[in-house]
Amino acid sequence: MLGYFGPKGTFTHQALRTVSDDEAIAFPSVRAALDAVRTGEVRAAVVPIENSVEGGVSATLDELIAGSPLAIIGEIVIPVEFGLYAREELRLEDIRQVLTHGHAAAQCREWLATHLPNANITEAGSTAGAAAEVSRPDSHYDAAVSARVAGRLYGLTELAYQIEDNPGAVTRFVLVGRPGPLPGRTGADKTTLVAYMREDHSGALLEILQQFAVRGVNLSRIESRPTKTTLGSYCFSIDAEGHAHDRRMAEALEGLHRICPTVHFLGSYPRADKVRPSIGIGFSDAEFDEASAWVQGLDRETVTRD
Amino acid sequence: MLGYFGPKGTFTHQALRTVSDDEAIAFPSVRAALDAVRTGEVRAAVVPIENSVEGGVSATLDELIAGSPLAIIGEIVIPVEFGLYAREELRLEDIRQVLTHGHAAAQCREWLATHLPNANITEAGSTAGAAAEVSRPDSHYDAAVSARVAGRLYGLTELAYQIEDNPGAVTRFVLVGRPGPLPGRTGADKTTLVAYMREDHSGALLEILQQFAVRGVNLSRIESRPTKTTLGSYCFSIDAEGHAHDRRMAEALEGLHRICPTVHFLGSYPRADKVRPSIGIGFSDAEFDEASAWVQGLDRETVTRD
Amino acid sequence: MLGYFGPKGTFTHQALRTVSDDEAIAFPSVRAALDAVRTGEVRAAVVPIENSVEGGVSATLDELIAGSPLAIIGEIVIPVEFGLYAREELRLEDIRQVLTHGHAAAQCREWLATHLPNANITEAGSTAGAAAEVSRPDSHYDAAVSARVAGRLYGLTELAYQIEDNPGAVTRFVLVGRPGPLPGRTGADKTTLVAYMREDHSGALLEILQQFAVRGVNLSRIESRPTKTTLGSYCFSIDAEGHAHDRRMAEALEGLHRICPTVHFLGSYPRADKVRPSIGIGFSDAEFDEASAWVQGLDRETVTRD
Amino acid sequence: MLGYFGPKGTFTHQALRTVSDDEAIAFPSVRAALDAVRTGEVRAAVVPIENSVEGGVSATLDELIAGSPLAIIGEIVIPVEFGLYAREELRLEDIRQVLTHGHAAAQCREWLATHLPNANITEAGSTAGAAAEVSRPDSHYDAAVSARVAGRLYGLTELAYQIEDNPGAVTRFVLVGRPGPLPGRTGADKTTLVAYMREDHSGALLEILQQFAVRGVNLSRIESRPTKTTLGSYCFSIDAEGHAHDRRMAEALEGLHRICPTVHFLGSYPRADKVRPSIGIGFSDAEFDEASAWVQGLDRETVTRD
């Protein structure tokens, strides 16, 4: 059984559907979804990690490192696309009352102003809740702006799709499980971690980055975050290209472990975009092996004699 | 006239109150608030920039650098504290129906479970909207969880305060105006910018950070952000300690301008926490002046003669 | 009047000849030659700085920074080529006694073994002294191995030239004067300095190098040297590509001056090889000017009004 | 049998005496001494590596990496002290003719000017040769300035000692053998290598240094040297604190091997000064082992189940 940060019909729900069509449990918060993984109530859960329309993002990183350890085992990227959903086929000019979440209204502002200039937009607690309300036969709302998954879930008719003002936006989710054997290497993997610095000096971030750079590991995301324990102290949330089974990544992780007071390893898992990183000269596993062999060979067995 | 990302009664509204008690205009989105600054409808606007309960944060950085230039001219930090508000004094055990936003419900989950174990929690579009609804004499909701500013705004009675599960959290806002003379130096200033890198290579971030490090400028926040134009390309959103009038910061900005294809300077302004950064040996204005004089003096006027 | 580290007939003398054909004073040591510049006895002096056959090199750097300041005003590169010189034309097989300095003998070992297998090689105090001795009509030495300048000086006949085993070697000299206006920029210049580090920590050299790297200044030579005052402490002798009048070099020098307890600037002068360095994107004078103008412009004069 | 860069009576000979009192072979050049190690004629040889009075130093590094591999197996540091030696006890005022090498004369200039103001100083091919000449009963030289070892070797009487103008100078030698098992770790070791860079770009040296810095390895000497194959190309001769059996050094060597086209490892051996380096937090062998164990443990064996 899988879980997700609900309610039903959100983009998170849509992300979950890309992983499994089985029944899944919606949880009211990221923490609740992750705690259900921790207790074993669900095997894994889908939670938003970047740019989510429905919020919960900054909570996710914090919750992942609070409590007993969890592991990111997959990544899901979903286009942020909104549709207009009604109980039945309707002409746009007949729509008077639209229900949706404030963020969705903001992201579809231009489309709504152009196509529904006379409609009244009312804010709901979530886009999914708006779709649910519109599905009630006696609702006085004509249509909802929501994710497609919500329109389908509540048996609504899609009147328009991709009505967001900025097409091409995506939002990112992770599938979180309990620690266990890492997902196998695919050659297009990502490693997520949170590294704490020893003290708040200007060089700390440089030292952390150099641990990656000298081993040829590129980062695809870095974000400083205030630590909760010390005022004015920071940690860094990092996505690095590669898998902990890659020699360059393993050595970089060892380096971080030595120079940082704490490193939370949050998982190595396949990238959603399946892009394979270019590996610079000197940083392949074969070159790491060859270098180790060279150093071993410096201590030659043939004894120097008189 | 000032503006802010509304609606009335949010933490952003509370942040605005720390700057001015005059009437202000609430805008339905961060973009709308910033566009009103651009058009001159308002002199400046308060928008969330970090950790906001009500969302809008990631939008803020994007909106600041879209359209015509804006300038951050102040920073406001607000504790994230929730209260329970009703139309009149009530005993907690008599509360049956509570209305609030989903994020607020999540952040007060433990308090609500302990003190209102039998209450029904309903999600509203915003905490401010919840307070507005509760203020209606005929509302069937007994109480709202919201910011204090909303409770006061709607004439509600505060039944409890600081009911959040994680005390001590803060959220950060900025006051945004049109570009003009920079706010004067206070010695406890912050500079915000977005630096684009020339290409997606592992060393780009290091090169950007070294421009600061070699001039002794500490960073208080860094965040990589995908650029919209090129897939897989990044820019960096940075808060640095100091003012563009500090010589070390001015030289670092010049350095960034030379190595980055684009640098968006978003302002130098007083830090909300009034903490003065420690300036390392060699990085004070006096030391910059002294070094310039030394280099000038290398070209001695006394001519060498036979 | 110029001076040089003598005696007459050495490679240093040969280097001096590339600068001036006028009479010049030979000094018995690098210190003596430099002190003569300091006292004004000579206008400038030629001394070896790298790879000299006749020694004196490591002394040169030390002597340049001891005593009152001096300035390198030119660089001279000389091929290390030896010839075989006799009082008159001789067949090689008739040569029995060869006189030369030990280093020259070592560098021509193979040629001497091949062409003069039966000759007896005797060590003199210098190659020039050997040529002088051979020029005496009653000398019992048949030939000298020396620089061409010595052969000519003592009126000897050149029996063979370029007899060194490793052709292509060069040795480098500098022309040293008293501080004054720097030689003008040629676009192919070099700057020499000695930078002391604040303490013996592993990062000191990196910090010094980054002062150059962030301004796009390449180094063409770096050498750590023990300082005389503190056991286990080091300074760095550096040749950097460019002139102190180049903006990138001036800013790098300012940076060094701020982070190092002492920087000895030893001069900017034309490179002997006339090679113009490639200047990376962002590091030309024009780009420095443009960046300064940009930072100035951040503080816009147009006042923001209500 | 050991060899050394002769002749007898030099500081190199004196350095050899600190290693062995057995008979040893003097070779006329550094190359000859090292080739004798290569061919097995001698087991090991002592050659100068830094600041030698008698020259041969820059040759040593070049010769070490030319031909078949050699290994530095020990380091010897000798104070540069000169004495005045005569056939018998003499009053200083009776000395008229002094013989010595030009460098020694330069280094004792002040003493000679003060104590032997009327003596005539003649240059010999070496200080040792000067002592040999003075030891001849019919020599018309009264005294020689040389190393003590030469005075003793030729049965001379020491009239004065430590007559050098700059007391405290030292010169450094290495004991070179054929590659074999590395000398055991003492905790106060040094590793010598020559690293070639991939191309002549400003970042190459920084990249090499960072390989050491991220593993907490300090350098005690660095020197850029032109490579013979490509004009304008450089390699770096480096002494690093620690032993190839130290985990931090082994990993740094592996890193260099991966990023450099060529690395000549020249040996790990006990430091002459027996100073133990301070090892920063995170860089001890125990911490390397602990970090490796941590990374191993990321791949937990307990399988996550439904």
Automatic annotation (TrEMBL), chains A, B, C, D:
The keyword Cell inner membrane does not apply. Pfam families: ACT (PF01842), PDT (PF00800). Gene3D superfamilies: 3.30.70.260, Periplasmic binding protein-like II. GO terms for molecular function: prephenate dehydratase activity. SUPFAM superfamilies: ACT-like, Periplasmic binding protein-like II. Residues 193-271 form the ACT domain. The keyword Amino-acid biosynthesis applies. InterPro entries: ACT-like_dom_sf (IPR045865), ACT_dom (IPR002912), Chor_mutase/pphenate_deHydtase (IPR008242), Preph_deHydtase (IPR001086), Preph_deHydtase_CS (IPR018528). Pathway: Amino-acid biosynthesis; L-phenylalanine biosynthesis; phenylpyruvate from prephenate: step 1/1. Its EC number is 4.2.1.51. It catalyses: prephenate + H(+) = 3-phenylpyruvate + CO2 + H2O. It is an enzyme of class 4 (lyase). Keywords: Amino-acid biosynthesis, Aromatic amino acid biosynthesis, Lyase, Phenylalanine biosynthesis. It comes from the Bacteria. Residues 1-178 form the Prephenate dehydratase domain. CDD domains: ACT_CM-PDT, PBP2_Aa-PDT_like. NCBIfam families: PRK11898.1. This is Prephenate dehydratase. It comes from Tessaracoccus lacteus.
